[in-house]
């Protein structure tokens, strides 16, 4: 069952052959997908660095774009990441003596 749902991702993004997909267990496939996503994010960061470097030569000092500007567009934070950032902020605020 899981193979039918995974075929599109396996053959497109991961570029697996049919016999390679058939030999994978579900957890191995999941790890391959996570690895692909990590590689893609690293490649996007690299591209964003070079694009921002080229673009910043045309802007006034202090008004350029950063790599983070591009990464927020390419990889917006998920709900889990937003929730974790909020928890981290509250914990840090309380550690500094703040009250909520």
Description:
By secondary structure, the protein is mainly α. It has one domain (2-95). It is 72% helix and 0% strand. The protein contains 5 helices and no strands. It has helices at residues 2-12, 18-22, 26-56, 67-74, 79-95. The termini are far apart.
Q: Spans with pLDDT under 50 lasting ≥5 residues?
A: none
- Ends distance: 49 Å
| Percentage of residues assigned to helices | over 70%
Elements, N to C (H/E): HHHHH
The count of β-strands is 0
**Structural domain count:** 1
Mean pLDDT across the residues is 91
How are the elements arranged and paired?
Layout: H1 2-12, H2 18-22, H3 26-56, H4 67-74, H5 79-95
Characteristic terms for this protein:
single chain, 100 residues, mainly alpha, 5 helices, 72% helix, 0% strand
Provide a quick synopsis of the model.
The protein is 72% helix and 0% strand. It contains five helices and no strands.
């Amino acid at each position: 069952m899981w193979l039918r749902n995974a075929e599109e991702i396996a053959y497109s993004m991961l570029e697996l052959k049919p016999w390679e997909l058939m030999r994978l267990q579900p957890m191995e496939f999941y790890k391959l997908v996570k690895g692909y996503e990590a590689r893609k994010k690293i490649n996007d960061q690299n591209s964003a660095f070079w694009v921002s470097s080229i673009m910043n030569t045309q802007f006034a000092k202090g008004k350029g774009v950063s790599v983070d500007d591009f990464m927020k567009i390419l990889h917006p934070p998920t709900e889990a990441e937003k929730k974790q950032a909020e928890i981290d902020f509250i914990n840090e605020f309380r550690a500094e003596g703040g009250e909520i």
